[in-house]
Amino acid sequence: MGSFSLHASCLAKHNLPWSNGCSQNLNSLRIPALRGPGFLSRKASKILAFYGLKSPPYALDALEPYMSKRLLETHWGEHHHGYVEGLNKQLEKNDILYSYTLDELVKVTYNNGNPLPEFNNAAQVWNHDFFWESMQPGGGGMPELGLLQQIEKDFGSFTNFKEKFIEASLSLFGSGWVWLVLKRQEKRLEVVKTSNAVNPIAWDDIPLMSLDTWEHAYYQDYKHDRGKYVNAFMNHLVSWHVVTARIIRAEAFVNLGEPKIPVA
Amino acid sequence: MALRTIVSRKTLAALGSGLRAEARLAASRGLVTFSLPDLPYDYGALEPAISAEIMQLHHQKHHQTYVTNYNKALEQLEDAMAKGDALAVVKLQSAIKFNGGGHINHSIFWKNLSPIREGGGEPPKGSLGWAIDTDLGSMEALVQRMNAEGAALQGSGWVWLGLDKDFKKLVVETTANQDPLVTKGANLVPLIGIDVWEHAYYLQYKNVKPDYLKNIWKVINWKYASEVYEKECH
């Protein structure tokens, strides 16, 4: 999630956790010069960015008419972009946090429910990367095979799951996200609502698909009508292919049951 | 705090025939329902600070939905209480807080705004003006502080200028979602509330919340705020 680019000259300026807080050690390490002379000099250029704005895996007009190009330009180009810039600005000032991956950063800054100031930006960058990838042009329809079986096992039927998801989206008060998650401990699928930027990876569950229910996610196209937006998402946008890929990966970490090996 | 709601009593005659005995009993006891208050100005009267499109949607759709759902939740509460269903009563609290809060907050908000030709944006004279200078430094400082807190608020919520009626001091507070100002202190009286939910500005300002906050002061109705202040602080 997000690209990680570290301008190496910052090594000279900042105290890294393993360096005993003493930059003298680094200068004596004989790190080979990756650029011209004076590479590690303290006058070297400042950090440019830690995270980049990842593009959705489709053109901005590809989700029309269910999610307009105009909405995506604002949602991705302004909101998501703003979170990335905000996060980069915060990380410039914080030595410890920039050594984490985005996943780790979200969990660490969540701080068990007492979030640090960087959490909002970090989590929203993660959340939006995940959300764009949860959709596709020509999405909607139904999942198949193993994923469908798992949904039927945990919700009774696909229709039941869909109703639960829609109900959760409509009853979420304020800003937030609705998720289909794989609960790691309980080893089952569940529909989960979170507020603002909160994300189920914070308590170690595995998200499979999400819907942004912040008003900025639908207002330009659907105005106050969140119900219409949710239906458009379920019927035309959600990418069951991606959810399938995600649950396949999740099964490497969560044992969802014995494989059905036919007896000879 | 003057909360101008138009209430009506449901009569037995208005109820359909398919009601359960408990609901009929509740109605005969007089379940008070709420309805959407009228705006004291046209939808377009606050232009260009707030567009007519936003005002109409905000009033007719968002506020109306809070009223409708508040009434529904109160009916369900009445039911649950009559049946002695403790769990159901507790489960309804978040819907009541959210929808009831939404109704209360928006009812104040419409009175916090007024068209420029009717005095919108004119700073307060008299005791509220002095109190702002004494408690918060200056009008500029107040505006800057409320704008900063409003811009920094994550998610949905409100930013308030309130009066602590015990200490007779002005305070600036924020609340999340539709929490009324009293959730930050039982002795707090709301004078000015600014809605920073995205629906309050999105169609006009998109993600540039600071511009909305800068412009809304041009239509803030300080007359109403002064009235409330003087009533509490005479």
From TrEMBL, chain A:
Names of required cofactors: Fe cation
Cited InterPro entries: Mn/Fe_SOD (IPR001189), Mn/Fe_SOD_BS (IPR019833), Mn/Fe_SOD_C (IPR019832), Mn/Fe_SOD_N (IPR019831), Mn/Fe_SOD_N_sf (IPR036324), SOD_C_sf (IPR036314)
GO MF entries: metal ion binding; superoxide dismutase activity
Enzyme Commission number(s) of this protein: 1.15.1.1
PROSITE patterns: SOD_MN
Boundaries of every Manganese/iron superoxide dismutase C-terminal domain copy: 147-246
Alphabetized Pfam families for the sequence: Sod_Fe_C, Sod_Fe_N
Alphabetical list of SUPFAM superfamilies matching this protein: Fe,Mn superoxide dismutase (SOD), C-terminal domain, Fe,Mn superoxide dismutase (SOD), N-terminal domain
Compartments it resides in: Plastid, Chloroplast
One cellular component (GO) term of this entry: chloroplast nucleoid
Keywords for the protein's UniProt record, in alphabetical order: Chloroplast, Metal-binding, Oxidoreductase, Plastid
Domain Manganese/iron superoxide dismutase N-terminal: 51-135
Record family assignment: Belongs to the iron/manganese superoxide dismutase family.
Protein name: superoxide dismutase
Species, as recorded: Rhodamnia argentea
TrEMBL record, chain B:
Keyword list, A-Z: Manganese, Metal-binding, Mitochondrion, Oxidoreductase
Family label: Belongs to the iron/manganese superoxide dismutase family.
Record-annotated Manganese/iron superoxide dismutase N-terminal domain positions: 33-114
Complexes and interactors: Homotetramer.
Originating organism: Rhodamnia argentea
Gene: LOC115748202
Cross-referenced Gene3D superfamilies: Fe,Mn superoxide dismutase (SOD) domain, Iron/manganese superoxide dismutase, C-terminal domain
A Pfam family matched in the record: Sod_Fe_C
Residues binding Mn(2+): 58, 106, 195, 199
Cross-referenced InterPro entries: Fe/Mn_Superoxide_Dismutase (IPR050265), Mn/Fe_SOD (IPR001189), Mn/Fe_SOD_BS (IPR019833), Mn/Fe_SOD_C (IPR019832), Mn/Fe_SOD_N (IPR019831), Mn/Fe_SOD_N_sf (IPR036324), SOD_C_sf (IPR036314)
Names of required cofactors: Mn(2+)
Catalytic activity entry: 2 superoxide + 2 H(+) = H2O2 + O2
Entry protein name: Superoxide dismutase
Keyword Protein biosynthesis belongs to the record: no
Entry's EC annotation: 1.15.1.1
Presence of keyword Manganese: yes
Compartment(s) where it occurs, according to its Swiss-Prot or TrEMBL record: Mitochondrion matrix
Gene Ontology molecular function terms on file: manganese ion binding; superoxide dismutase activity
Function: Destroys superoxide anion radicals which are normally produced within the cells and which are toxic to biological systems.
